[in-house]
Design goal:
seven-stranded mixed β-sheet, about 25% helix, 6 helices, globular
Length: about 200
């Protein structure tokens, strides 16, 4: 299930927070040195905000599969390295991570629109991406988040914005998450940018 809106950094934060909550007994976020830096910044910020001793473990891209252990809660990887075009094997890494009990997050900012992506086919848990690059949305275009249908009703929205509320125009005092992927909405969508996209 997909949702379009907000920025890529917000979507990374949401996916990572939801994934960590799904594996509360684990504390390692595994990424690689080829990941886009802002993904790592968002992970560092979330770790600090949670204050529970989580660790961002960054390895070389060719060491990712060997680094997936039963300590890993989440893999946070960019499918295509923006610097050199190296492509991770999404199917293999997803399988290895899930076999080890980890949740997967794929950043598709440098692959969506440039090459075929089959999240459902490989069983990915979460994915995020921007639309301003290879999807031709232009500067300021919204980002997207994918939550596998099996997780959509239990993925917790770390950023509980008014538009992700079950009844946003009721203006209730307390937050109730929307149904499924709708709970991953945060603020008012950029309607003109979405129309252009």
């Amino acid at each position: 299930m997909w949702f379009l809106g907000d920025t890529l950094s917000i979507k990374v934060y949401q996916a990572l927070a939801a994934a960590l909550e799904m594996r509360p007994e684990r504390r390692v976020i595994l990424s690689d040195s080829g990941n886009f830096p802002s993904d790592l910044y968002m992970a560092e910020g979330l770790i600090k905000a949670l204050g529970r001793g989580d660790e961002l473990r960054v390895v070389a891209p060719d060491e990712v599969t060997d680094a997936i252990t039963d300590e890993v809660a989440v893999t946070l990887l960019t499918e295509v390295d923006y610097r050199n075009g190296r492509l991770h094997d999404m199917g293999e890494i997803t399988r290895r991570a899930q076999d080890a009990g980890a949740v997967t997050i794929w950043d598709l900012a440098h692959s969506a629109g440039a090459l075929p992506v089959d999240l459902a086919g490989c069983g990915a848990d979460f994915a995020v991406g921007c639309t301003y690059k290879y999807l031709n949305g232009g500067p300021g275009a919204p980002a997207f988040i994918y939550v596998a249908p099996r997780h959509a009703t239990r993925a917790s929205p770390a950023l509980s914005g008014w538009l992700g509320h079950a009844a946003p125009f009721a203006f209730e005092a307390g937050y109730r998450p929307g149904k499924g992927i709708e709970r991953m909405r945060v603020g008012t969508p950029p309607v003109l940018a979405m129309a252009a996209l």
